[in-house]
Design a protein that fits this description.
This protein is about 40% helix and about 20% strand. By secondary structure, the protein is of the alpha+beta class. The protein has one domain: Endonuclease, Chain A (2-Layer Sandwich), CATH 3.30.870.10. It has an 8-stranded mixed beta sheet with strand order 1-7-6-5-2-3-4-8, with helices on both faces. Helix 2 packs parallel to helix 3 and helix 3 packs antiparallel against helix 6. The chain starts with a strand and ends with a helix.
Length: about 210
């Protein structure tokens, strides 16, 4: 069976069915166009009551705040987290499908969650099948668990508003593109308090729901 995927990853992603027990995604960025493409998969998982975990970032300010809001509305609290570990970059892309009976699988490669990356772009991905290569599968799974549990913070509406404020500033002024990522990045020599950061950064509350989800 061919496990290399060099085009249209979306068509190769595993099925969400009665055998599925969980779905994890880790990508550097998420665009609204990509959310619309994977929305049916996520909705199916939610309808079956499956645990869904998504780990992404504000690295390079590419992630669309509208996509974060759509994910938050669909999945709720603590299903979406943003990376804030000590690494100066965040560039993984992997799609985990866990099953009870058939082998679990991970699609690892170059595709972020955007319409182009999932369908029409030149992207290379590879399926790591747990039955064929259990060691590699477990390494990826354990690393995801560690990053999600220990090097990320839960997405919230306040975080989205804060990021949208910075995102809008970048759109209009061309300021440093990694400001939000660097601000939230974990620093082993200086422990940040999330509430203090929000109080410092938060502008007057703006309801972005209608504006960003047109």
């Amino acid at each position: 069976m061919k496990r290399a995927v060099t085009s249209n990853l979306l068509q190769h992603l595993s099925a969400i069915d009665e055998d599925c027990i969980g779905l994890d995604l880790i990508v550097s960025f998420i665009k609204m166009s990509g959310f619309r493409r994977i929305q049916p998969i996520l909705q199916q998982a939610v309808s079956l009551g499956l645990p869904v975990r998504i780990l992404t970032s504000t690295y390079m300010n590419i992630t669309d705040p509208a996509a974060l809001l759509a994910l938050y509305d669909l999945l709720g609290d603590n299903s979406v987290r943003l990376y804030n570990g000590s690494s100066p970059s965040f560039h993984p892309k992997a799609y985990f499908f866990q099953y009870k009976i058939k082998p679990s699988a991970i699609f690892v490669g170059s595709s972020n969650i955007s319409e182009t990356a999932l369908t029409r772009g030149v992207e290379w991905n590879y399926e790591v099948n747990a039955a064929i290569d259990p060691v590699s599968y477990q390494i990826f799974a354990d690393t995801f668990d560690h990053l999600y549990d220990h090097e990320a913070y839960p997405l919230s509406h306040d975080i989205i508003v804060d990021y949208r404020s910075n995102y809008r500033t970048i759109e209009t002024s061309g300021s440093e593109i990694n400001q939000h990522f660097n601000m939230w990045q974990d620093d082993p020599y200086f422990i940040r308090d999330f509430q203090d950061i929000l109080a410092f950064r938060r502008n007057e509350f703006v309801d972005i729901r209608l504006e960003t989800l047109k």
